Amino acid sequence: MQFCSLIKAAWTVFRKDLRCEFRTPLNFSILMIFAVTVLMVISFAVGGIALDPTLLAALLWVMLFFTAMTGVARAYVQEEETGTALVLRLAADSAAIYIGKVLYSFVILVGVAIVVVPLYLVLFSVAPAMPLALAATVVLGCLGIAVTGTTFSAIVAQVTTQGSLMTVLSFPVMLPLLWIAISSTSTSFVGSNLVALAPDLAFMFFYSGMTFVASLVLVEYL
Amino acid sequence: MIWKYAMGLFMAAVIIASFLLVPPTQGLGDMGRIIVYHVPTAWVAVLAYLMSMVHSVAFLRTGDMLRDRKAAIAAGLGTLFCILATVTGAIWARGAWGMFWNWDPRQTSVFLLLMLYVAYFALRASVQDPDRRAKLAAVYAIFAFLTVPFLVFVVPRVYPTLHPNLINVTERRYEMDSIIRLVFLSSVVAFTGLYLWMFDLRLRAENLLDQLERERGN
Amino acid sequence: MAVRVVCHDLTKHFPPRTLFRGVSVTVEPHSLFAVTGRNGAGKTTLLKIIAGLVPSSCGVVQIADGGRILSLGEIRQTIGMVAPDLALYDALSGLENLAFFAEVRGVAAAREQIAELLELVGLTKRRHDLVATYSSGMKQRLQYAHALLHTPSILILDEPTSNLDSAGAQVVYGIMQRQRQHGSVVYATNDAREVALADAILQLD
Asked: Rounded distance, CA B35 to CA B186, Å?
């Protein structure tokens, strides 16, 4: 019963966030423009040089990481800036808010990835050997970034001088995830053995799962 | 007071012994002596970070500000010893591998560990309200600490390590002869004592600062 | 329900200053409790500590129903708050805001309750407009509707009538008197008329 009401409240928060987002789709557009700009800048700088698959994969994740840092950070920071954070905390369980915000960040990140990844493949003329593996990697990577990023967003939102604190806090914690995502992405470009990817995908899943559980416990104290 | 003098003498004895009793290592020459400093500083760094984590958990459970202060001090000392371990490690790497820094897994992990705690202090510096600062820092410290196992799992997969192991796990024996082992273990004790002493000094200083601030506030 | 707020020895430091020290008060059921004091004395912070939104430096707040101390989840259902630094969602309409909070809190018979409250604060006509288009007084009226949504036992009001016209202020005084029937009101004010309504007064200095 309690679990049901938690999920229901989380879903309500998620729907509210999406609705606010689509009323003023400014955030999402800016995020998309940011990601595309980074992509174009890299593409322009690289020119026509053929890149090593690992380097290509690293570029993709660097771009997704920084896009996430500008976007996911908003999940809680925006509530704090508009003064709605306190009202929301009075109304809902912190775990429910957290789950709702993770869902929201995940949807936004996947939304950006759906546009940016194909564009990236075209610009760098990459034909992934295992497109489904690439898709799975991107989705799981976005999940991990959404889960941890949302936690740090909750921390950063309460900080007086935010600056680039979000990136500083997230980078060392997310690095294991990014590393595996990069290795998995580059395998999906050139490899042919799907089984070899399984541990990487499993790692990303467990990383997200563990940080999710830890966050659920810790957000109570924020 | 007396044990501080004893500590000083003991530390001095360990330092002298590291030069007189420990023989030059095969292949590394005098460079091998650094093990007497490198490993204990790394051990103290881990111990201090662990203590910081324990105090952070205790803070969230009790809300006792003294716990927050202890967590911050332990994290600060952990970072100091971590830097010492990194520097001594780099000096050793220069002798053994020919380069100060080559992103060996151990070096990579230690670098990330330092970044985690730099971020911890960046977070602390960004919050003005001390009660809120304590809360946020504790949550971050616990969260960050929980991701360290992933680091340990991932990093060796990215690069194979060349770092020597002191304990040969398969044969269950120490790869050291008895005299080096004695000096080495004494050094571990001495550095742990040094850590406890420094912790005590910092805690007393912070308590005094806090008291001063309160008196000034009234 | 007889919900009581007990503050034990509350202290809040904002280094290098101490806002207040050793505040111990009890807010009795069926009472209006006023907190007064010059600007910067910590009225808002005290209210936020009671609501559980800001940690205190020392001391605890206990909210008890009879002899039983309420859990965090129960406290959330017990408190309604209106304050100048709280806000509702600009991108949603007044009605959507109330519907969202009713759903998050799991309020039963939300539709009737919302309609009634909108009528009470006089926003029925503008209920489909975005909050962004509201005046500051209307936003505050909507906040009252939001704070009463789950019929809280404790109403916490920071400067209850700061943005309201005299008609709005009358609505608020009505709400406060009605609230006294089944719970209590803790409010921070420096307005002499509002202080005069109180059953108990805490002066912060």
From this structure: 12
Task: Give this prediction's pTM.
Answer: 0.89
B149 reaches C (C-beta below 8 A): no
Nearest to C87 among A5, A82, A92 (CB): A82
To the nearest whole Å, the CA of C72 is away from the closest chain A CA by: 9
Under 8 Å between Cβ of B69 and B138? no
d(CA A178, CA B67): 34
* Total number of domains constituting chain C: 1
pLDDT tens digits, one per residue of A167-207:
999 998 998 899 899 989 988 988 777 788 888 899 999 99
Describe the strand order of the beta sheet including C68-69 as a list of residue ranges.
C17-27, C3-14, C58-65, C68-69
> First CA to last CA across chain B, in angstroms?
34
B:C CB pairs within 8 Å: 28
CA dist., res. B29 & res. B95, Å (int): 9
Nearest CA in chain B to C59: B63
Residue B58 touches partner A, C-beta closer than 8 Å: no
Distance of CA A45 to the CA centre of its chain: 25
Which residue from C150, C168, C151 is spatially nearest to C160, judged by alpha carbons?
Answer: C168
- Domain-wise residue ranges, chain B: 34-217
CB within 8 Å: C57 and B218: no
Q: What is the domain-level CATH number for residue C109?
A: 3.40.50.300
A136 vs B120: CA distance, rounded Å: 32
The boundaries of the domain holding residue C30 are: 3-203
Q: How many CB atoms lie within 10 A of CB C147?
A: 24
Q: Look at residue B157 in the predicted model and tell me its pLDDT.
A: 64
**What is the distance between the alpha carbons of residues B157 and B105, in angstroms, rounded to a whole number?**
9
Mapped onto helix, strand or coil, the DSSP state of residue C190 is coil
State both tokens at A64: 């997704």
Question: Coil, strand, or helix at residue C161?
Answer: coil
In DSSP terms, C93 is beta-bridged to C130
Q: Are C15 and B213 inside 8 Å of each other by CB?
A: yes
As a whole number of angstroms, the distance between CA A197 and CA A132 comes to: 11
Reference B15, options B184, B133, B197; nearest CA is B184
C184 pLDDT band, cuts 50/70/90, is very high
What is the pLDDT confidence band of residue B168, given thresholds at 50, 70 and 90? very low
Q: At what angle do helices A131-156 and B130-158 cross, to 10 degrees?
A: 160
| Cα atoms in the 13 Å half-sphere on the side-chain side of B78 | 25
Judge residue A125's burial from the number of C-beta atoms within 10 Å of its C-beta, 0-12 exposed, 13-18 middle, 19 or more buried.
Answer: exposed
Q: Which residues contact A181 (CB under 8 A, 6 or more apart)?
A: A57, A61, A137, A140, A141, A144, A200, A204
More confident: B143 or A24? B143
A214 close to C (CB below 8 A): no
